[in-house]
Amino acid sequence: MSKKAAFTSDLDFCPECGSILPLPGLEDVVTCRNCQYQIDVTEFDGVEIHSKVTFNKRENKSVPQTEEEYTGPTADRKCAKCGNEGMIFTTRQTRSADEGQTVFYTCPVCR
Prior knowledge:
- There is one protein chain.
- This protein is mainly beta.
- It contains no helices and 5 strands.
- The strands form 2 sheets. The protein has a 3-stranded antiparallel sheet, with no helix packed on it.
């Protein structure tokens, strides 16, 4: 069923083009989605696949309590609460990398 490969590799990769192969399913062959190379599913007998999901630990960030702790770059924006001119801002990447950063503003007077 499978033709002669261009090079040898692990069963995780297509021996013809090097693409990652899909996991064996109910079909009799595993077909590369890139070049349509086929490997008999019996070649995967005895192969165990292990995966592990690891989550990053949450960082506990303290909220600044004193005025000295509220430092950073300032922007010419007016506070909606107290009317102070000049807001401290920080940026965070809250969405995917191809989207812009989210800007968070903090008033140094009323917080």
